[in-house]
Sequence to fold (482 residues):
Amino acid sequence: MASPSDSSSPPPSPTPTLSEITSSTKDTSFAAAKEEEWCEAINSSDEKKDLSSSSLVSVSPSLVFDKLGSDSPVGIISEGSQDAALTFPEGGVRGWLVVAGAVHMTFAGFGFINSWGVFQAYYETGMLASSSSSSIAWIGSLQYCLIFFPSLVMGRLLDTGTFILPFSIAALTYVVATILIAECTKYYQFLLCQGLLLGLAAGVMFGPTFAVVSHWFRQRRALAVGAVVSGSSIGGTVFPIFLRKLIPLIGFKWTLRAAALLIAYCVGFACLTLRPRLKPVKVEGGLFNFAAFKRPAFSLYVVGCFLVMAGLYTPLSFLDVAGRRIGLGDFSSYLIAIANATSLAGRLVPGYLADKIGPVNLLIPFSLLSGILIFAWPFCVSKGSLVVFSALMGIGTGAFVSLYSPGVAQLGETHDIGRRMGTLTSILSFAALIGPPISGAILTRTESFLSVACFSGTIVIVGSSVMASAKWALFKSWKGRM
Fold:
């Protein structure tokens, strides 16, 4: 088989052809037809390279699979010089144990941090009453930022097979930080302990979690990731009620200590079960995957996700505050639990459908509808309307968290998924950092949730449009599985 980049050049070293790969396929005419599609997929990629004896192709495996279709008889495709067969267990005892460990991690990590709205309201009316809403919001935003930022380093450590030790240290630090929050009395102490230490430890654990799951699943990857992120929905439902009910009964300090005990079990289970499948690889380049940005589709996708992230988490940060302003009292804390509970549907259902029609194909409309929904927030001035808004908003945020990770996994090779995922999530950390404080400053300045909604809703809609342009950049069409 001649090099697809130059049919007239001398043939390179013998390489496996598509016919050899599909030797079990008796219909040779079908295999020949697929071989032509194979060449077309390579020629259409911007990563064309000559075939060599050490690699079958150097184009994105995801792109080739999309070109050939998910029902292609191609069972093994080598990935660049790594020669890693694209065959995945798609489950099994070991694979689902990895998923279970990841669920425990997201329950204790993202689930607890998603309960920030309860702390925001509690601090505003009690321990930090002298601080502004915007100042207090910086504590929660720092958590959200740091839960994403360490992915830049942890993604690379996963690719090189050395993430277990820092993951375990972070798990211990996360438990200790939760206990230390109970001892804080001043704003800077909460900022350092709950914002910096807790957020950083959660980020070190969160960074490799989804990429490890991707080692075990391909065709069912979106479903597996949807199951993993459901852990944060369950945790985000349990912890707000847990905190609100126990603080009046046993006090703030013992409530945090009880939470630390539950968290210790969850992160311990994750440490024992989260293990990568692929062999460590030596990836060219530094921690930040600049080469990935040579692809317009990836660059636009990152920008779109950044904008959506900057606006999407504002309602979750201020739902409790909004409920108290319209006189809902203690019931307002349940709004966060409701949003996190319904996000379970937003994580699982789109995750299942994404395996059939593509994660980005679902992410775009879900994000767009969430942006439109945010504009209705200021007009929810009754208990019933705010409950409905919280439920629908939870579905939107759940869909985003569930789908952005499988989306970026499709835009490159599997052996480099940790570094590519780390690049995206580290960029998203800055969106999580600036979004709620900007909204808090707008709220402090205007005393109106209408202004906050206009800011958040607008950037989410713009971000959805940019993600749609990423699909156009890849396919030059609105059709195609992405």
Remarks:
- Residues 1-13, 15-85 have pLDDT under 50 and may be disordered.
- The chain is about 70% helix and 0% strand.
- The CA atoms of residues 148 and 425 lie 5 Å apart.
- The radius of gyration is 23 Å.
